[in-house]
UniProtKB/TrEMBL annotation:
Segments crossing the lipid bilayer: 138-159
Coiled coil feature spans: none
Name this polypeptide is given: S24 family peptidase
InterPro entries linked: LexA/Signal_pep-like_sf, Peptidase_S24_S26A/B/C
Length: 185
């Protein structure tokens, strides 16, 4: 029975590896969110260095809500390479002023709606965040895909292995009267 369960267990594990591989893309397609790693300490203790933040689309009205954490880009950035996350401190006719939770001063320039890149939905902390980052790296994706492929290829082979019948000492037949001396007791 256990021998028959092993190929099934291998296929289940392979399916789980593929789900882990595809889940972030599926989440992005369904929600429009993307993931961003915290690379500084300006938002400590709310968001810590190395954590992974799920960033959801934001509305222009989010820039008007004092206390709202937003992700913005530096002026002129069209690629999103300069994204950073701070909290709305105040709103004036010049724009929205942001401040990091761990910063003493408000940011030196206000931001506009055109710089808004999203707002955080949730964060992955500690080991969970580290594991997520690994699964999104090239190495992690190779490990997940390769592991799933190996399990899917090995499982059918394991299922076809012939069963080896074990015979007890009582099933042995011999004409030699001393043969019993060689049997396990």
């Amino acid at each position: 029975m256990a021998k028959r369960m092993l190929p099934v267990a291998m296929q289940i594990i392979a399916a789980l590896l593929l789900i882990v591989l595809a889940a972030p893309l599926g989440w992005r397609l369904v929600s429009g969110d993307y993931f961003m790693q915290v690379t500084g300490v300006s938002m400590t203790p709310t968001y810590r260095l190395g954590e992974v933040v799920d960033v959801q689309p934001a509305l222009p009205s989010d820039l008007k809500r004092v206390g709202q954490v937003v992700i913005v880009m530096l002026p002129g950035d069209k690629t999103g390479a300069s994204r950073y996350m701070h909290r709305v401190q105040s709103v004036t006719e010049r724009g929205t002023w942001l401040k990091g939770d761990n910063n003493l001063d408000t940011d030196p320039q206000p931001v506009s709606e055109g710089q808004l890149a999203g707002k955080p939905r949730f964060a992955l902390h500690g080991l969970l965040g580290s594991m997520f980052l690994f699964t999104q790296s090239v190495t992690g994706r190779i490990v997940l895909a390769g592991g799933a492929l190996a399990l899917l290829l090995i499982a059918p082979v394991m299922a076809r292995q012939p069963k080896i019948a074990r015979r007890g000492a009582s099933s042995l037949v011999s004409n030699d009267p001393d043969a019993a001396a060689y049997l396990p007791h």
